[in-house]
Structure prediction request, 346 residues.
Amino acid sequence: MSDHGSGGSGSQAPPLFLHDKVQVFSVKGNYMTLTVKPKAVDLAEWIAHQVVEQFRVLTKFVDVVQGADPGKPAMCNPISCPSMSAGSHTYTWLDNSRQPTRLAAPRYIELVEKWIASKIMDPKLFPIEAVGSPATAAATYASGGVNTPGASSPIGLPATSLHASLSALSGRDWIGKGNGFPEHFFSDCRNIYKQMLRVFAHLYWAHFEWPFYHYDLEASLNSCFMLFVLVGTELDLLTVRDLEPMQSLLDRWIALDRFPSECKYLALVAAGAAAAGAPTALPKLVVLPPASMSTSTPMASSMVPAPALVSSVSGPASASSVSASSAVLAPSAPPSSSSPPAPGMG
Prediction:
């Protein structure tokens, strides 16, 4: 999969989402209270919660661009969005032969949602039974115990090598090991987060004006994306390089002092800038006149009503599972072998 930009956009006017007038947010206060892991919560549990919650919110924004009047195409359709792009970046999908395939944005997003939903609904990746519960207690102790069915004595383990390292003898450690999360849990969550970033980037670059700006949803979109970035960088699910498609917007927010001063993202940007000898913020952009924006509606007059995007609403994802009945995930089954198997991770 192409995880990098393809081609250049040339000399163009700044996109609408960079204008000072739309740098508005619906959430007041410090975002870090929603980002930093509570002391009593296990790190893997917090990552799982945040991944599910960010996916739930993202699907609400996708609903807006996929909605349409009867007989009318959705705003994000194969004609308006023939590729999954974000500015100069174009993303491809790996087909069953592991070959990069360019898909129209709505098809790419549909597959991403199915793929993420299948991950979240997998109890082996996102366990819903606590370690030590009746369902898992028997597997907790490798040598058996008093609760092991049919065991009157401990079960012997194979001999260990005297030449093995202490780390090998004690076993590998990973995030969530003590709570039943698999060894690949964190890497899978990083891949999920990267895919969600690509969807956010497409929504900004291709659909910010229609529908978000003209539906007065720019404050909700900005607030949710700000939290998405803070969570991703705080939990090491995103790197500054991953955020390259949205770097121009994030630089605007840095210049306008929108980020919490204590957030990890600012520290990462400062460290990268110091290494490159570059400033951490861009100068303010000149606001384009209103005439540069489209005044025609790409849909019929009875446009899709905007959902409540910031308040807590029911969605396809809950704390431990994804509802297969949600329209955004239809059909509910995970991608079959005939579908492109998974998004490529460059």
DSSP finds eight helices and five strands in the chain.
